[in-house]
Amino acid sequence: MNSDNHLQEVDLATYQPFINGAFLKNNPDREFIEVFNPCTEELIARVPRGTQADADRAIAARKLAQQAWSKRTSLDRASYLKAMADVITKNRVLLASVLSKEIDMSSQINKTQLGKITRMVKSSVAEGAMVATGGKRNPDFSNGYYYEPTVLLGVEQHCEIIQREIFGPVLPVMQVKNFDEAISMSNDCEFGPTSSVYTNDINKVLKASKELHFGETYFNRGNFEAIQGFYAGWKKSGIVVRMENMVLRNTCKQK
User: Fold this and answer.
1) Exposed e or buried b for every residue in 12-43, given b needs 16+ CB within 10 A?
2) What does pTM read for this prediction?
3) Which of 9, 29, 168, 219 keeps 20 to 30 A from 198, CA to CA?
């Protein structure tokens, strides 16, 4: 692939690894990964599968680049970022052409993920759950990995769709006896990324903030990461905390 026309249509078989400012030749025994457009299911690229040698080169290049970048002035860094922004702006129509203007919710990333969502929903229904809305691949699109926004009622605590992360537009709903049971059942899983609580009771806010086993808990808002915040998944949802130093500094008065 030529770096001067990398946004133009190219032969799918000509992609090469780009490491440390140079393209590497593809050896005859190199494996390729087929990349499909999730909105159209069209094959859009064949990219070379990275090897251990590629990873070693990339890590070494990253260390050198970090050293060089740290020596740049703020004006130098701003000029490079502006150049990147100019390229994106110039090619914004091409970059956005893969998206449909007639959708409210985008497609899943690939066929495998679409199949996972379909299987988990069907499994829940087989165990007694009821589909209130959605529950199938979106019939409005003949191509693309679209799944309808889905609400499931009557889901049981042991169901896979409760115990595991689905990463899809599916909301399983359960009834609980009281707030204590809601917290207990929420904690009864192997994962703990984010949680949300909707209440006008300050005592429940304080109780949930202490007892929920999740890296992030939001009150009276959607369960997504605050742009100025951090990510801290618990249990099997993560082993690291991102942006912790920045968050700590923002909550302190330095002298």
Assistant:
1) eeebebebeeeebeeeeeeeeeeebbbbbbee
2) 0.62
3) 168
Backbone φ and ψ for 4, nearest 5 degrees, come out as: -80, -20
pLDDT tens digits, residue range 67-87?
888 888 888 888 988 998 998
Task: Provide the 3-class DSSP secondary structure of residue 120.
Answer: helix
- 36 with 42: CB under 8 angstroms? yes
Higher pLDDT, 18 or 250: 18
DSSP letters spanning 167-218: -SSEEE----SSHHHHHHHHHSSSEESEEEE--S-HHHHHHHHHH--SSEEE
DSSP type of residue 113: H
Closest by Cα among 178, 191, 200 to 235: 191
**Residues near 35 by Cβ (< 8 Å), separated by ≥ 6?**
43, 44, 45, 46, 47
CB neighbours of 151 closer than 8 A, spacing ≥ 6?
Answer: 131, 132, 133, 134, 170, 171, 173
Helix (H, G, I), strand (E, B) or coil at 83: helix
> Helix, strand or coil for residue 130?
strand
